[in-house]
Amino acid sequence: MSLFRCEGIILRVRDFGEADRILTILSPDEGKFEAVARGARRTRSRHSGSTQQFSRGQFLVFRGRNIDTLSQVEMLPGFPSLTTVLEKMAYASYVAELIDRMTGERERSESLFSLALATFRALDEGSDPAMVTRAFEIKFMSEMGFQPELERCVGCGAPEAAAPWLGPGAGGLLCAKCRTRDVNAVAFSPAARETAKRLLAWDYRRIPALSPGSGTRAELDRAFRAYVDHRVERRLRSLDFIEEITSIGGRQEGESGSRED
After folding, report:
1. CB contact burial 93-114 (16+ within 10 A = b; e otherwise)
2. Measuring CA to CA, how many Å separate 134 from each of 95, 129, 194, 234?
3. Could you tell me if residue 238 is left (phi over 0), alpha (psi between -120 and 50 degrees) or otherwise beta?
4. pTM for the full predicted model
5. Which uninterrupted H or E stretch holds 157?
6. What would the DSSP string read from start to end of 10-24?
7. CB–CB of 101/187 below 8 Å?
8. CA 222 to CA 134: how far, in whole Å?
9. Fewer CB within 10 Å of terminal CB in the chain, N or C?
């Protein structure tokens, strides 16, 4: 049984047996892989605190025939608010689940790991997790080879100004004539299109400079949801978590507004 060491972020944690955990780890060198942390659920286990979702560390792992086994973890600076602030936890869970769903085992990708690391940092440090997540979605789609065409109609090549629809299945903008090629095409205004371009091109540090109106944000939410769902092919469980947190926030804002009235 050989040993390997790698940096990684824990995307997912599952209970296994009486006291173990199975970790899904994303690494630049090993890609996504699973490892069992023996006894990690025991109170006095040395792995108890280092095997939580979103933990980042240097992992020393025994390579196994069926599944790897965690030997040691050296913790690295992580993302503390992702486990203490519910809204950030919800969006980070979605990011982790989307990566887990759309990547295969041992598909090494330094650029994907860098994107995941930058996204979790932005969620941890930022104040608008929804916009950070929209930026992740379009960057991740590009990373996976599904970057939407935002410069012209994918059907006939008409310029973007004449293509006010986004076709999830078509893979980008559609003009009025070509819209029939994708029954799930959604309206995509010039403001949404330009914001999407910036979300794709800009570093996360520049995202706070974007301040789209509520209508544009709603368009981006619908369009990106449709675009991602078309490729995932199954609803992600973390979306229910986001909806629950968002609805609680909405109710609290409504109650606050009523009291002020």
Report:
1. bbbbbbbeebbeeeeebeebbe
2. 10, 9, 13, 19
3. alpha
4. 0.92
5. none
6. EEEEEEETTTEEEEE
7. no
8. 11
9. C
Report residue 212 as tokens: 């789209």
Burial code (b: 16+ CB inside 10 Å, e: under 16) for 164-182 equals: bbbbbebbbbbbeebbebb
pLDDT tens for 66-77 read 999 999 999 999
Q: What is the pLDDT of residues 151-172, one digit of tens each?
A: 999 999 999 999 999 999 999 9
Residue ranges of E strands in the chain: 3-16, 20-27, 31-37, 56-62, 68-75, 165-167, 172-174, 186-187
pLDDT in tens, 87-143: 999 999 999 999 999 999 999 999 999 999 999 999 999 879 999 999 999 999 999
Rounded to whole angstroms, the Cα distance separating 242 from 97 reads 12
Residue 177 DSSP code: T
- CA of 164: how far to CAs of 77, 139, 193, 226, in Å? 43, 21, 9, 16
Sequence-distant (6+) residues with CB within 8 A of 106 are 30, 31, 32, 33
Cβ-based neighbours of 132, under 8 Å, separated by 6 or more: 91, 119, 122, 123, 126, 204, 207
